Each structure stands twice: as C-alpha cells, then as structure tokens.
Batch of 2 targets.
Target 1
Amino acid sequence: MAQNHDIGIDLGTSQVLISARGRGIVLREPAVVAVDRNTGKVLAVGSDAYKLIGRTPGNVQAVRPLRQGTVSDFELTKELIHAMIKHAVGNHWFSRPRAVLALPTGVSDTEKRAILSVMLDAGMRKTQLIDKPVASAIGIGLHFTEPYGNMIIDMGAGASDIAVLSSSEVIVGTCTQIGGDYFDDAIIRYLRKKHNLLIGDRTAEEVKITLGSAVPPDNDLTMHVTGRNLISGLPKTQTVSSLEIYDALKDPVADLIECIQSVIEHTPPQLASDIFDDGIILAGGAAQLSGLPDAIYQELHIATGLADDPSTTTVTGCARALENTPEMRSYLQDASRSRFL
C-alpha cells in the first residue's frame, strides 16, 4: 500500500534525513552537491560530494545549495532532492508516496511552492510542510496542545529556529542565522587572527566537535590542527587548546542567548512564566555543542535540557506527522502559510 512508503524529510543546510513509516530513518546524507564549473553538470551528491569539499580540482565545485536557512541555489537544491528521494524510496515510485517536509524557516513562500513542485516531479503524491520547531517538538514527544507555554530551540548548521509553542501553534518565533556554521566561522576567524592559520570548514567542524565548549572547559585539552600559514603560504600544524576554542565561541554563544532572551521578552507573560517553570529544550545537531545548556542557564536562569538524539528529532517528528489524525493534520501547512515572521 502507498501509505507504507510515506516519508518524512528534514531538508537541512548540512544534512538531509529521511524517515519512512514503520522503518525509521532510511537516509542520512550530507546536503552537498558537486558540479563541474565549466559545464554545470552534477558529478556527485551527498557523501560522495562531501568528500570533495576542499579537495576538488579547479573545475569541480562542492557546494551546499541551502545556506543559512535559505535556498542559495534552487537548481542544485532540486538535484539534491531528486537524488535523495530516489535513494530513499527506491523501487516504490509507482506507489506515489506522501511526504511531510520540514524546511528551514528562512525559506520564502515562493521557494516553498517551487520545492513542492520538485517533490511532485520526484514521485510524491502529496507533500505537506511543517515548521521545523513543531516537527522537533513532535519528535521529542512534547505535548503542546494545551494553553501552556513550551520553548524549543532547533539548531541546525545554517540557522536556528527559536519558538514558543502553545495550543498546537507557534505563538512567538524567530529564525536566526546562528547555528553550527556560525560557530565554525568563529573558529576559523580566531585561528586566522591568533595563529595566522587558515583552515577549511571541515577542519573547523572537527575542532568544534573535539574541543568546542560554551562554558569554560574543566580540562584544557589540545589537538593538532593543520592548515595554511598566512605568512609563508606553506602548510602548518598548530597545537590548539580547548580554552582557546572556548574564547573563540564566547561571542557566538552570547549572540544566541541574546536571541533567546528576545523571544522570551516578546512572549505573553503567562506563557513566559510556564517556560521559567518547565525550562527550554534544545534540539538539532548544532545544539550538541558541549556546555550549551549550562551557558544558557547561567545567563537566563532558566533550566535548559538537550533532547535525546537531537539531530533526528525533526525527521522523527515529520514521520509522526504522517499519522492521519486531526491533531497531526493541524500541524501541517501548504506553501502559502507561514507562522514565522
């Protein structure tokens, strides 16, 4: 039956995750496309394209078609979606499955309509959209049907959605470009300024995962980081400490907390009181920065917790939204509706 092949899709700026009904997550691939600069031909998608980042010849470019929560290259986004759905659905195209798709909230209504058209071309019978924080809340199992305030922050690579949920809706929300890439860029700038060392995006991400912390580290760990010396132009290996990376990330973390505080300030008082009682939930891959819940608590004095398996909460919520119940149907939208400003 067609419904057995229905899928939930989290189309993120760094990863695409697809979950199939009854089978769990069936695809987790980098949102990267490699193209020939001269001909425009797509050479690789997903993991094969990711391996080429920073290692491509002059005529090959490995790019992420979604950047900072928006579609930066629609044609490549189209190629990415086609490839991922074909890989996940396989030989079941004839069944024309249904899909629930979570997009970064920075994607415009025009882009949403175009993506829905691409999904139809890719073999979907019907595609409905869902706000990322709503999908994450469903994936976590958060109950927000009652008139009670819940706050969730879904942190992706290119953007973070900060939302207050109540009565099955987003009451107050914003999308900020502070996410995993923002943290990586801060590390790149820091090492360039302090050590005259130029590193790439992949190296910066490795440094963040290994040494990154939003609070002063208990133990000052170190790792060897290789890049290019900006003075000599030659390869250079530099020992970098976790205390240094904490210094690099202090300002980006402060920027995120400022955005969270702004959303709380615009939240109705009674719902804000509920949040102070029950706390904030962090989800999304970028939320796994060590010490981030503690940093938020220290500044805002609101208990903050990290969701179990935060990188999969959105796609899990998309899959659960496929259930044909009145409650789940109320969370879905077409391309003309948006709950975020």
Target 2
Amino acid sequence: MANLFLNRRQLLSRTAGAAALAGLAPGLLRAQGAAIPVAAAYTVPVEQKWVGRIHIAAEAAQARGDISYKFSENVSNTDYTRVLREYAEGGAKMVIGEAFAVEQEAREVAADYPEIAFLMGSSFKADPDLPNFSTFDNYIQDASYLSGIIAGAMSKSGNIGMVGGFPIPEVNRLMNAFMAGAKEVNPDLKFQIAFIGSWFDPPKAKETAFAMIENGADLLYAERFGVADAAKERGILSIGNVVNTQADYPETEVASALWHFEPTMDAATAAVAAGEFTAADYGVFSFMKHGGCSLSELGTFEGKVPAETMELVTARTAQILSGEFEVEIVDSEPAA
C-alpha cells in the first residue's frame, strides 16, 4: 500500500515544487539573505488542530533557517488588529493569521502596511486592489473524501456522528467531502451533525459526541478535539481530522485526513524572498496534488479495514493525483 499515501520524500518534493512556483525552493531562502522575519497571531492555543498545523510548518521553516518566527496565541478578536499592527511595526516582513472573524479589520491593517506581506486564513478571496494581502484555507477535501470511504465501510450500524466547530465553509467542505466518500461505500448511511459554536472546547465536543453515541452512532467524525475521547471511552471508532492522533487512541481511531501547511508556507516565504509576493489564493496548496493534504497510514488498523475498501481508496487516490477524479468542494452547511 506504499502508493496509497504521500511519504515524506514525496511531500518534500511537492513542497519544493510549490515554493519554486513562487521563485525559490525551500532551503534556498537563507542563501539569498537573512532569514525572513515572520510573525503570527492566533485566536486559539497552538495545540488546536488548525493553528497547530500552521505553527508546525512555521517552526520547520525556522529550523531550516528560512525564517525567524514569533507568535501570539489566544488573541481575542477585539485585540487582534492591535497585535497585527504591533508585529507590522516591529519589523515583520510577513504576518500570518486568521481573518475569519475580523476580515475587514485585518484588510485595513494590511492596507496601512503595503510593504509587508499578509498571509491570512480567510473565507474570502484575495483582492487585486490590496496586493500585499493573500488568503489561504485548509482545502483538504481530497483527504476527507478518502477518510469517508473508510468510515462508510467500518460503520456497522450505518449511523455516523459528526461534531464540528462552526458551520462555516472551512468546516462544511470537509464534512461534505467526508459524507460523500462514506456514501460511495454505503448510500444508505445516516449522519448526525452538530456544531458546538467554538474552535476549542473539548469538553463540549465530547458531551455532544456522547449524545450521538446514545442515539445510535457507532463511528464518529472528530472535526474537533474531544470527540475522539468520547469514542475511546465508549469503545466505538473515530476518524480524525487535520492531525493524526491515533497514538492517543490506538484502539479506536482508524485514520485521519491530514493537513500539511508546509507547501503554503514555503510558497509564500519564497515569494517574499523573491520580492514577488502579491494578492493570491494560496488555498490551492492544500490540495492533495500539491502535497497539502493526505490520508494517514492505517497504523494500528492495518489489516482491519476491508481489502476492497483499501483498493477503492488506492484507486481514488491515484485518480485525485492525476486529475481524473475531482472531489467536489461544497461549502454549504451539511444536512443530517
């Protein structure tokens, strides 16, 4: 099954390609001069899944010497633009963050510092009239679809519970792709769907998952932290999202759809180093064909997923990478 997953060599190769598109390959930035000063403002702890992936990629770029990196976590929405301005005034050449709840305000800050690159998570697109403000998001629908195929085969009751943070495009597209993959295996599946109204509230997510289990779910889609804990305590299966936490749930977490922010980070920093950063949609670097997402290895569930299911996963993976099969991006709120 080695052809099923992107291994480290493949990921690094595709990351290099992404950065080369912007002008330079990773690892060459330092040769062009000093490390690029990068600052990040996060509204949640870096332990949170989505932000955690950005943080890991930034630390990797710093370890290579491509960037110097500082960050603030748990920044409130009301304090967010102040932090962005402080980093801009403090010498950062690129500022990373989340504009979801402060979209207009973040763009206004960027407009005041045209010489600084802003790379912001956003539900909206980059504006050519604001050339130093680029957007990104975790478009990992490819990997989510594949994890759904596995879920559809592993659910015995045909009842899957799904717990998300907020019903916004960033979450909806992953849930919809997961559901589509599951339905390819079992069109009669039923889904319980709930949103907890928080990006980081593991106890609330866990309690919501417990309610779904009581209502017949025998497999959980863990878009939020806390859901996999509920699955572990009740002895049912779970599918992870964004990060691989199977080591914490070896008996219950089957697989995860993984987000790799490295291609996005490397392409943006290369553009800054080359003096070519401009308004662009960096979301494409989260697609599987760019190495931005992958399905985790089965690990402790190797051999436990039906062989025909894994053959389908292998076939769909190859088709996604070749462009023969395209996972539909559906940003609307998923229906139970």
